[in-house]
Structures are given as C-alpha cells and as structure tokens.
Design goal:
Elements lengths: L5 H5 L7 H15 L8 H17 L2 H10 L23 H8 L22 E7 L1 H6 L1 E12 L15 E2 L8 E6 L2 E6 L8 E2 L12 E12 L8 E4 L15 E7 L5 E4 L2 E9 H6 L1 E7 L2 E7 L8 E4 L15 E8 L6 H14 L5 H14 L1
Parallel strand pairs: 1-9, 11-15
Antiparallel strand pairs: 2-7, 3-6, 4-5, 8-9, 10-11, 12-13, 14-15
Helix pairs in contact: 2-3
Length: 374
C-alpha cells in the first residue's frame, strides 16, 4: 500500500516550524491513542502513521532527505540506514515520552529502574582564609559531619549474608501504574519507596538505611586567587546516598577575612601610606608593607596628599592563572597635632617665608575664587 505524504498525515504545510509540527502531532496522538480507542483498530493505525510522520519530520536530517527524495530517502534502503519500521509502538518511545511523559503509561511492568536508591544530599562548608592564603594558596583540613555508607552492609541496608529482594508490588520497576478512564499515570511504588527493592532482613548497625551518621576529615586544596564567595566542589564528598544511591557533593565556600592594612579590589591591593610634612616636602625613602614583606619606596620632593604610587606585580594572583595584580599606595600627608614651642616657631618662620611664594595649586585655587566673585 502506498504511504501517504507525511505532511498530509499531520495536516501541516511543508514549511511548518518545529512548534507547529509538535502541536499537530500531539493533537492527533491525544485523539487516536490506542488507550483512548481500545475498540477501534483504525485509530491505532492512524496513531502509528502520525507517529512515523512526526519521527521523520522532527529530525532535521531526515526531514531534509524526505523533502528531496520522498519516502525513498528515509526508507530502509536509504543511505545511513534510513527509517525503522513503526509496527511496534515501543520503537518511538523516546519521542512520544518527550511529548507526553507518563501520561499514557510509565514504566513497563518488570522493567528495572536505572540505578537503585536516591542520590545523597549536597553539603556546604564555609571556610575562612587569610589574605596571604589568597596569594599562596592553602591546603586545609576540615571535619564534616555527614552520613556515610554503612561499613557492615556496604550500603545495601541488608543484614550481612542476605541481599535486597525485588519488590513484588512493582516487579522491580519502582513505579506502579494508575489508570483512570483512558489515562494511565505512573507513581512511585509505596511498598519499596520507588527503589524497586525491599530489604527483608535489615542490617542492625544502620537499621536498613544503608548509611550511618559520622564525621569525616577531608583535605581541601585552596588554589591561589580565590575570592569571597568562591565555591570549590568536591565530588562525592556529600551525604551518602539512600538505599545504595550515589553520594552528593561537598561545596566549600570561601570567605576572605578583612586585612588591617590592605583593601582588595579584584587582583589589586590598596594601601594607605602616611608620610610626614617634612618627608613630603623634602623627599624621602620609606619602608612600605606588602604581603611578601617590606619594600623601599622613594617619596619625591613635593609629594602631595592623594598621590597614588604603584608597585607592579605586588597584588594578588587571578584564579587559575599566574598573572598577579598590582599594589596601589595612596599617599596622605600627616599634619602634626601637637608641636613643641621650637617646632611652632620654625613653622611660623616658614610661613612667613612662604607668603610671597604661593604654591601652584594654592595660586590656582585663589584665582578660581577671584573669577567666581568678580
């Protein structure tokens, strides 16, 4: 029998987009599904015909081949293997389940679930580090309270010498199918809590849970360049899985403590450096701190407050690179708050000498005031 055109089967035009194609197929599938028409064999045929059409047209490569060569381009003899027969409705289960989920079925009786048990919970550990740890990195040992697989039953929950049995309620699938009218919906089996297995003789150490409470010591490598809020993931170091499921992960969240001298801005460090009036006026060489120790800094004659000096490569590294930022030194000139009589007399003499030699910044300021009020 000659096959009908796939576009005609779905009732769509040849330039139909993906969303419209999906809507058209869903409408036919809802109308002609065998569960909804148990006494109408023709409905099943229409359903399979529409499913075959959708399987071809929803695949970009197969649709292109069909548009060029028709059914010959996607048949069994087509290049690359072509299309497989849809006589068995299970052959397009992945396509149909992607559209409808468990609406018309669910796990087949006797089918085993992929992986027994539930994944363990993820854990979070907040770790405080010092600023110099960001520079060099750190290996820290932390103690984490968490559940671990039971050493007696190796996480099975069964008494040593015994093993879990396949659940009779769901025949190992972990799900049961509930039917109301033409709808069938799968639900987790209440007998085995969705695991597909039942422990008859429970392990006395973990009471059948397959895991026990405990505390574990874990070594955590903190790489250079971490920042506040950096999350380090340790795969498999979270809570043990339930009923033999895989463990969760451990997330170590970094918090960098505030430093007394340095303020961080990305990979750069900022530091306030006080100098005396004499050092600023006459120039000097002073010691300034870095995370790696003191270095000499030359203060030029006539340095003003607010001047920023840069020490290249004295900042912090960037995470997963060897590049380092800079250290920015913010100079501020300290004004004496207590002076001896001789010191005051010297400053008064200096002030008298300075009246006729106003500094450039002061002179510019006075000129702006004059222009403002004239």
């Amino acid at each position: 029998m000659t096959k009908r055109d796939y576009y005609e089967v779905l009732g769509v035009s040849r330039d139909v987009d993906e969303d419209a194609l999906k809507r058209a197929y869903r409408e036919i599938a809802m109308r002609d599904h065998p569960d909804r028409n148990p006494d109408d064999p023709s409905a099943e045929e229409r359903f399979k015909e529409a499913s075959e059409a959708y399987a071809i047209l929803s695949d970009a490569e197969k649709r292109q081949a069909y548009d060029r060569f028709g059914h010959a381009g996607v048949g069994a003899g087509a290049p690359g293997g072509g299309f497989q027969d849809f006589g068995d409705l299970g052959n397009f289960g992945d396509i149909f389940e992607g559209l409808f989920g468990d609406l018309f079925g669910g796990a087949r009786p006797g089918a085993r679930r992929r992986g027994r048990g539930q994944r363990g919970a993820d854990l979070r550990y907040n770790l405080e580090v010092e600023l110099h740890d960001v520079l060099e990195g750190l290996e820290s040992t932390v103690k984490i309270p968490k559940t671990r697989p039971c050493g007696t039953c190796n996480g099975s929950g069964a008494k040593p010498g015994t093993s879990p049995e396949i659940c009779g309620g769901c025949r190992g699938s972990g799900q049961v199918v509930l039917q109301q009218g033409f709808f069938r919906v799968s639900r987790p089996c209440t007998d085995c809590a969705g695991t597909g297995e039942i422990v008859r003789d429970r392990c006395t150490d973990c009471r059948g849970q397959g895991r026990t409470e405990g505390q574990q010591t874990i070594n955590v490598r903190i790489p250079p360049g971490v920042d506040d809020g950096t999350r380090l993931r340790l795969t498999g170091e979270g809570e043990a899985g339930i009923s033999g499921g895989p463990p969760g992960d451990l997330y170590v969240v970094i918090a960098v403590r505030t430093h007394d001298l340095f303020e961080r801005e990305g990979p750069n460090l900022h530091c306030q450096v006080p100098v005396t009036m004499v050092q600023a006026a006459l120039g000097a060489e002073i010691d300034v701190p870095t995370l790696e120790g003191k270095v000499k800094l030359k203060i030029a004659e006539g340095t003003q407050s607010g001047k920023v000096m840069r020490l290249r490569g004295k900042g912090l590294p960037t995470l997963r690179t060897t590049t380092r930022g800079d250290q920015l030194l913010h100079i501020f000139v300290e004004t004496p708050t207590r002076m001896t009589k001789p010191q005051r007399e010297l400053l008064e003499r200096f002030a008298g000498e300075s009246d006729s030699k106003v500094s450039p910044a002061h002179k510019s300021f006075l000129e702006k005031i004059r222009d403002l009020f004239e």
